[in-house]
Amino acid sequence: MENRYKLASVLMSASLVMAACGGADENPDSADVDEVVEENEEFTSTEESAEESTEESTEESTEESTEESSGQSSGSTGDTIAPEDINHDAEEAVDAASENFDGELVEVELDDEDNQWIYKVDMESESEEYEVKLSVDDLSVVEEQTESDDDFDTDEHFSYGDAVPAEEAVQTAMDETNGELEGWTLDRDDGQLQYEVDMKNGDNGDSDVTINAENGEIVETDD
Prior knowledge:
The chain is an alpha+beta fold. Helix content is 39%, strand content 30%.
């Protein structure tokens, strides 16, 4: 619509010029008018091409942004993790924690906190308890705290070497449920060292697989 106004304006200007020159030449050369119209059409065509190019560029940028966003969300649901995406195993996490605190192991956990996958290692000595959260990517310390402890319970202590590797327990749970890993915990329960492996089974809900950590056998599965 704006281009039509521009064309009308140009034609009107051309008519006024011709009228002004009418006294000198009653039959103005129509080629002059055609030249003005042609120039305006070329300008209009160029402007339309530029607008179309801008629209196409905007559409392509929007499509690329949508595709990138979709790609980020399609790779992971955020609450599950594939074993191959864990760069360091649980034993390395326990060793890293032991370098920072001299005590007995009480619990090891793999969990997702604030969209970050971490190992949480709990330890205690006769006077203190220690908790550290380590990134599964590089074992960097995400958070750690030490508190006074007067409840030194030897029945809760264990050595990670007494358990089958967490990676083996996870594979057992995955084979049992055909689900995705949501996390796991290793500790003593009524004197029994065991893994509690949380699995996501798609539309079938979640499952908790309890595994005897000393022999790797399934104790029970709760759907």
